[in-house]
Specification:
Blueprint (H helix, E strand, L loop, with lengths): L8 E7 L4 H13 L5 E7 L2 H8 L8 H18 L9 H8 L2 H13 L5 H15 L8 H10 L4 H11 L2 H17 L9 E4 L1
Parallel strand pairs: 1-2
Antiparallel strand pairs: 1-3
Helix pairs in contact: 1-3, 2-9, 5-6, 5-8, 5-9, 6-7, 7-8
Keywords: Transferase
GO molecular function: glutathione peroxidase activity; glutathione transferase activity
Family: Belongs to the GST superfamily. Kappa family.
Length: about 200
């Protein structure tokens, strides 16, 4: 007699908190991982590096894409029950500020965490909430410290992770993961954000 239980498939989600489309994918995968029988592995990367490596242009560089994106996000956020709101100054958020420091912080959390991605999930969600729901900063170390505390990390742990996020090892890891995303075929922030393996 064959068992009806099948081994969960590994799904790697490459994402950057600067991308609202990544947030939508993230929340849907987190919400349905048990229903879909998947083992979700969160892979923080840099969307700017993906765009550059793929020779692609981000929505803020293409006015028609950008205008469509604003309306699209409201529809998709409502449909997926994700509290998406376009930031007060979206071009400043996307182009001038970016997410480099935030993604280094998430990568430090990922490197330090053992036995799953629970803390990575909480920290990532807090960052998305700040930028795409509450129109708050994610670039200053004080903002990242607040994110860590809101995600349930101790003050000592937050300080350790902030220091770790500035190390060469973490900086290299962010770029390595971004290159892996490109190698898998990721070309933008939402069309091929994941990879499945048997």
């Amino acid at each position: 007699m064959m068992s009806s239980y099948s081994k969960p498939k590994l799904v790697e989600l490459f994402y950057d908190v600067i991308s609202p489309y990544s947030w939508l994918a993230f929340e849907v995968f987190c919400r349905y991982r048990n229903v879909w029988n998947i083992n979700l592995k969160l892979r923080p990367a840099l969307l700017g590096g993906v765009y550059k490596g793929a020779g692609n242009r981000s929505p803020d560089e293409v006015p028609r894409k950008f205008h469509y994106m604003a309306a699209d996000l409201l529809r998709l956020g409502s449909y997926a029950r994700v509290p998406l709101r376009v930031p007060a100054q979206p071009v400043n958020v996307l182009m001038a500020k970016g997410s480099l420091e935030a993604m280094r912080f998430v990568t430090a959390v990922a490197e330090k965490e053992t036995g799953g991605d629970a803390q990575v999930e909480k920290v990532s969600r807090e960052l998305w909430m700040r930028i795409w729901s509450n129109s708050q900063d994610i670039t200053q170390l004080s903002s990242l410290a607040e994110v860590g505390l809101n995600a349930g990390l101790s003050d000592k742990k937050v300080q350790e992770l902030l220091e770790m996020s500035q190390s060469k090892a973490i900086k290299d890891k962010v770029w390595t993961t971004t290159q892996e995303a490109l190698d898998y075929g990721v070309r933008s922030g939402w069309d091929h954000s994941l990879c499945t393996r048997q």
